[in-house]
Amino acid sequence: MKPEQGHPGDDQEAVASGHGEPAGSAGSNGDAQRTLQLLRDELDGLDAALLETLRRRLDCCCRIGLHKRDHAIPMMQPHRIGVVQARAAAFAAEHGMSAPFLRSLYELMITETCRLEDEIIGVPST
User: Fold this and answer.
1) How far is the C-alpha of 68 from the C-alpha of 121, rounded, in Å?
2) Other CB atoms within 10 A of residue 46 CB
3) Is there a contact between 31 and 17 (Cβ–Cβ < 8 Å)?
4) Separation between Cα atoms, residue 27 and residue 14, nearest integer Å
5) How far, in Å, CA of 78 to CA of 51, rounded?
6) What three-state secondary structure class fits 106?
7) Model confidence pLDDT, tens digit, residues 64-115
8) Whole-angstrom distance between the N-terminal and C-terminal Cα of the chain?
9) CA 85/CA 66 separation, integer angstroms
10) Reported pTM
11) Are 108 and 84 in contact (CB under 8 A)?
């Protein structure tokens, strides 16, 4: 994310309103609040899409776990984790995002994936 785009959690009514005026300027507060609400509505929609994508990702990982179990493939695939982390780092660099943030995010997702695969692989196939 580029610095001029702001930071997550910032309430930059003056920038969001497009007027460049401080949030408390006469006449701009109503516009600033409406713009802020529109931006928050957009963020809520993006969050919903992100959560649905995360659900679909975990579902796919469960199907991978079933495939590994049914074909006696070891759960841990360290080279695959490296591929995923490298792709996230490249994405961060290309889009001006924080590489440590994406690394941490993927570490969380990979930890959950491993937990799910452990549960699946520990269950005998039917």
Assistant:
1) 7
2) 10
3) yes
4) 12
5) 26
6) helix
7) 999 999 999 998 888 999 999 999 999 999 999 999 999 999 999 999 999 9
8) 47
9) 23
10) 0.72
11) no
